[in-house]
Design goal:
Helices cover 63% and strands 0% of the residues. It contains three helices and no strands. The protein has helices spanning 8-18, 24-31, 35-42. It is mostly helical. The protein is globular and about 35 Å long. It has one domain. The N and C termini lie far apart (32 Å).
C-alpha cells in the first residue's frame, strides 16, 4: 500500500481538525511551513 503525501493545505486542515485551539505560529512550527504557506492554506 502506497501513501500519497499530503499537500500543505491538507496538512494544515488535518492539524486544525486534531487540535482544539491553534495559533498560526503553532501550525508553522509543528508542520514546518513558512508564514506564506500557512496563510495560503488557510484561505
Amino acid at each position: 500500500m502506497f501513501l500519497i503525501p499530503l499537500t500543505p493545505d491538507e496538512r494544515v486542515y488535518d492539524y486544525i481538525y486534531q487540535q482544539s485551539r491553534v495559533r498560526l505560529t503553532d501550525i508553522e512550527e509543528d508542520l514546518q511551513l513558512n508564514r506564506i504557506q500557512t496563510v495560503y492554506a488557510l484561505r
